[in-house]
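Trying the structure run again after the queue cleared.
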Amino acid sequence: MFKKFEDILTKIETAVVCFGLMLLIVTVFAAAVLRFFGIDMSISTDLAQLTFAWVSFIGADLAMRSDRHMGVDMLTAKLPLAVQNGIYLFNYLLILGFLIFAVRYGIDLCIVNAARKYNTLYISYSFATASCPVGCGLMCISAVKHIVQYVRNIVKNDYSSLVKKEGVEA
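Done. Tokens:
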């Protein structure tokens, strides 16, 4: 059940990020070309800012869900798999705590910015600030998924999921 939900969520997020990146590239490129000809396209700055916020947070969740975030594991890769699992579990618990904090205060930020408007888009700035609690909420789901996997590894005393994921020999 959760796997099907995760697959659907991944497809939706991928589509949103692809569309957002396309919109971001076209908008910024068009603004640069038009500026060369002396035509002002001031809407591009606000639209690019709005799009970038959403693409960044949703893209971060896509990276987190598939363990594609940048990391340095030169030291931890030399440790036994059980120790690696414990380190990963601890890290994801810290990450989850931070994400819950970001969701909580991101919602407050949306409320504070409700009356603030973009200069050219004539929509509330909360549309941009909502990317933080929404994206961090999605990342909370991904973090919990990883935490469950690491706890499951401890309970079963089976760390083979780390070998496949990290390429570490047992």
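The helical segments are 2-36, 43-65, 81-112, 126-129, 131-156, 160-166. Worth checking whether this holds up in the mutant runs.
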